[in-house]
User: Which sequence fits this backbone?
């Protein structure tokens, strides 16, 4: 909830589910999970620069290293000078590239692949923070978050291609080095829920639950209407349709009746998942829904209760 509130723009209909991210870190319990204002990447900096304020970020889609040919060749070196000058041209080109970045006031570089040692050497020299991201999807998300463009060439970005962040810093979470991109722009705030758990299955289940919750919030921004949950609305629809079917002529009544019975699948599934007797619960629901349309299943104690009093609701937009 706090992540969604932080990421919510002034115009609520413009809320994007992409502005609430989930990062999973193995270790600890679910109660140790926390919300970070920014985008969290499970990766540390490749250079000694671990904190940058008012960051200007260049995002590259490829590795930062010298190009190599597709075929192998043999180089014969006869003198010490030839050996010394062999990689000099490569070093000069790399320094020229890094200096261009520095002149463009770039202080954070995100690479979508490997970064050569000579490149890291010059990045360190010019005090530029470097992150290696091996997921192309993650590179795309970072670029979208920072409002920049993904570069496919090894050259300094234009002003329109530069991404910005109020702060980029590294921090340790559960002995795992993470990098936080903090961006306080009103129109594009990002919040990350850092999930902690003892197993991957626990983390995956929690991530799916969060995904459902965030999408529900998105639907609420479109249509803030709710109906009674816990199977109450479905069983009431089933009851009303089956009553309506009795007044239909010919074979139509059987089609309408079956359609009404199809709504039983929701309360029946809730009852079975809670380890309850589904037939008994359905019978009780039909009895209670004749009195009030708000009666549903309380899976905590297996009884039929008023969902409105329990504050169990379903989003109408879903």
Assistant:
């Amino acid at each position: 909830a706090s992540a969604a509130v932080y990421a919510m723009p002034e115009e609520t209909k413009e809320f994007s589910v992409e502005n609430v991210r989930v990062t999973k870190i193995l270790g600890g319990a679910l109660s140790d999970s926390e919300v970070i204002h920014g985008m969290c990447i499970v990766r540390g900096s490749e250079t000694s620069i671990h904190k940058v304020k008012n960051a200007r970020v260049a995002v590259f889609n490829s590795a930062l290293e010298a190009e190599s040919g597709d075929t192998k060749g043999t180089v014969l070196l006869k003198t010490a000078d030839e050996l010394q000058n062999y990689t000099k041209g490569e070093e000069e080109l790399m320094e020229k590239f890094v200096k261009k970045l520095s002149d463009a006031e770039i202080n954070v570089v995100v690479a979508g692949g490997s970064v050569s040692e000579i490149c890291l050497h010059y990045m360190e020299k010019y005090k530029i923070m470097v992150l290696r991201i091996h997921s192309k999807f993650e590179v795309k998300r970072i670029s979208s978050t920072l409002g920049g463009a993904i570069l496919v060439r090894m050259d300094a970005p234009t002003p329109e291609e530069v991404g910005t962040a109020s702060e980029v810093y590294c921090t340790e979470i559960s002995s795992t080095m993470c990098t936080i991109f903090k961006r306080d722009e009103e129109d594009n705030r990002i919040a990350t829920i850092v999930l902690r758990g003892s197993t991957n299955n626990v983390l995956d289940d929690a991530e799916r639950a969060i995904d459902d919750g965030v999408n529900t919030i998105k639907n609420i921004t479109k249509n803030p209407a709710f109906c009674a949950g816990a199977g109450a609305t479905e069983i009431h629809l089933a009851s009303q349709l089956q009553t309506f079917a009795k007044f239909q002529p010919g074979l139509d009544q059987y089609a309408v009746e079956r359609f009404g019975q199809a709504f039983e699948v929701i309360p029946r599934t809730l009852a079975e998942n809670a380890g309850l007797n589904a037939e008994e619960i359905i019978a009780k629901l039909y009895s209670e829904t004749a009195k009030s349309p708000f009666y549903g299943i309380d899976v905590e104690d297996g009884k039929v209760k008023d969902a409105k009093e329990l504050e169990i609701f379903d989003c109408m937009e879903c």
The radius of gyration is 29 Å. The CA atoms of residues 77 and 83 lie 6 Å apart.
